[in-house]
Design brief:
With 267 residues, this protein is mainly β. The chain has two domains: 155 residues, no CATH class; 89 residues, Immunoglobulin-like (Sandwich). Helix content is 5%, strand content 37%. A hairpin with a 5-residue loop joins strand 13 and strand 14. About 6% of the residues have low confidence.
């Protein structure tokens, strides 16, 4: 957005990060990635403006962010750097409530998956730094979840090699149940202090658990089904945030299974 507030010119850019990308191994073949933004009605900034209204082009760029940032700490003065490599342009809007659906961001997502240490999200900014131009989209703070930004990815999964450090003993039973909690509270109160895989009546012969932060950095891994994460990283308490896990296990009957998803660390 390039606008004025109380007669004072200013600009607003949008930073967005899909933390779920951390579940993709770097070798994943991303075939297609489509991003959708949805107009947010009833805001203090009203609706989109259009070229017919202001005489300006209303083109915006989507760029890959190359520096880490935190939602509750980022400001104009400490904004992260971006790259114009494989940037995507959108606009102009044809009307003041237009949704921008299925924007092709395949190149950006391919780089974000292939470079997990440089996976920091995307930035949406106007091409021309001149007011008046605005695009009004809903964020994940919107009370209408159907308007949240949406990323759809088509991919080919490359089966990772699972290191078999040692055989894990289990109990042979046909009623095997595996459960994964989605929150834990490592505050040393003796209740729910660690995160791990709960298996009941399972004969597991090989196991792997990996936990990643929002940037795709590995914070914990284990090949022992009984070794759980205590919520620490490099000897210090990990931040209270969302993380992502990938768990793989093989059973004595030759079958295997993979579970992956998000978990929340609270204290």
């Amino acid at each position: 957005m390039e606008w004025t507030w109380g007669g004072i010119p200013g600009r607003r850019w949008l930073l967005i990060d899909f933390q779920e990308l951390a579940i993709f191994p770097p070798e994943t073949n991303i075939l297609e990635a489509k991003l959708s933004f949805f107009h947010q009605p009833s805001t203090g900034d009203d609706d989109h403006s259009t070229p017919a209204m202001t005489g300006l082009p209303h083109i915006a760029f989507i760029q890959r962010i190359t520096d880490p940032w935190e939602e509750d700490e980022v400001t104009w003065n400490n904004q992260p750097a971006t790259t114009t490599d494989k940037q995507v342009s959108i606009g102009p809007p044809s009307n003041v409530t237009q949704d921008f659906k299925d924007i092709d961001v395949t190149g950006i997502i391919q780089d974000m998956v292939a470079l997990p240490d440089n996976r920091f999200g995307m930035l949406l900014k106007m091409e021309l730094s001149e007011h008046y131009q605005k695009l009004i989209f809903a964020s994940s703070d919107s009370g209408a979840s159907q308007l949240w930004p949406e990323l759809t990815i088509t991919y080919e999964e490359v089966s990772p090699l699972i290191p078999y450090d040692e055989a894990l003993a289990g109990t042979e039973c046909s009623n095997c149940v595996v459960q994964v909690p989605n929150i834990f509270t490592p505050n040393n109160d003796g209740v729910n202090d660690e995160f791990g895989i709960l298996s009941h009546n399972c004969s597991i012969t090989a196991f792997s658990l990996e936990i990643y932060n929002r940037w795709g950095g590995l914070v914990f891994n284990s090949h022992d089904v009984n070794k759980w994460w205590d919520g620490s990283y490099n000897g210090k308490p990990a931040p209270i945030k969302a993380y992502f896990f990938i768990a793989q296990y093989h059973y004595s009957n030759g079958s295997s299974q993979q579970k992956k998803g998000s978990l929340h660390l609270a204290r």
